[in-house]
Design a protein that fits this description.
alpha+beta; about 40% helix; about 30% strand
């Protein structure tokens, strides 16, 4: 019984430490729900991306990556350019 409890405690501790990498992209040209859908579709196909949310009013795109994955800037720039938009900046967002 103690072993099971210890394993559960360790798993909970490790899962809370296994945080996703979050990025915020500033994208010019976002104007409508179709723009939002297009960006989500393009960025979601990048390996390791777990979630993409778009704020049209602010021109911001938040991208969550799976544990241990980093957002490949070159591929992101290409996908955004291919979608018809301009990437103005990328910054890492603290998970806390």
């Amino acid at each position: 019984m103690k072993k099971i409890l210890l394993i559960n405690v360790l798993l909970i501790g490790f899962s809370s430490m296994a945080a996703e990498n979050n990025y915020q992209l500033q994208v010019n040209g976002l104007a409508c729900p179709f723009c939002e859908y297009n960006i989500q579709k393009k960025l979601s196909k990048i390996e390791g991306v777990s979630d993409v949310t778009v704020n049209l009013k602010k021109g911001l795109v938040n991208v969550k990556m799976l544990e241990g994955q980093k957002l490949p800037e070159t591929q992101v720039r290409q996908e955004i350019t291919d979608a018809g938009f301009t990437l103005k900046g990328i910054k890492t967002i603290d998970n806390k």
